[in-house]
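Give me the fold.
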Amino acid sequence: MNGFFIAAIVEGHGEVSALPILLRRIHGMSGGADRELVVNPPIRIKAGSFLNDSAYRERYLQMASAKARYSGRKGLILVMLDCDDGCPATCGPDLRKHVAGHCGNLDVIVLFACREFETWFIASAPSLAGTRGFPENVEVPPDPEKWRDAKGWLGSHLNRRYNEPSDQPAFTSVFDFNLAMSNDSFARTCKKLKAFFASLQAEK
């Protein structure tokens, strides 16, 4: 195999652009960084239907699996959703069982951001200064991972409405991973993806 291929499934407009950026950043700091990474344009789904409608879920998983199988690389099906009020530690394993059942021998990773992806930006707010008009010297609130309406919090500091399609990829390019590690869901995301990227090294 000559690298990695990730077929991703996401729910938000912003993740379509932001997730490939995140994956390339994590890949660059992992043990498999010497192997090429190809990220298929993420497939956007309706989270409620994906979680609760088995036929809907299977249709999109078959689409992602077909892309990964014919890539000629080590394939991964990656599902990333916001957990909202749920618990990532519970939601993730439950959904992974359903996903893995439709993906054959492909690797599967299911990730849930606690509340929403943007809580990672709150945890790393000082590193966003100067990006898209984000101010300097913004204090990180207590328990940023548990913050409700993270997009609203970001917008309040931008003095405008948070624009997911443009702000999310821009912030994903610069946010400090070390600061974001205070969010358990981000720490799990990094751990799982680093392990996947390192796995090809172990297969040599």
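The two ends are 10 Å apart (CA to CA).
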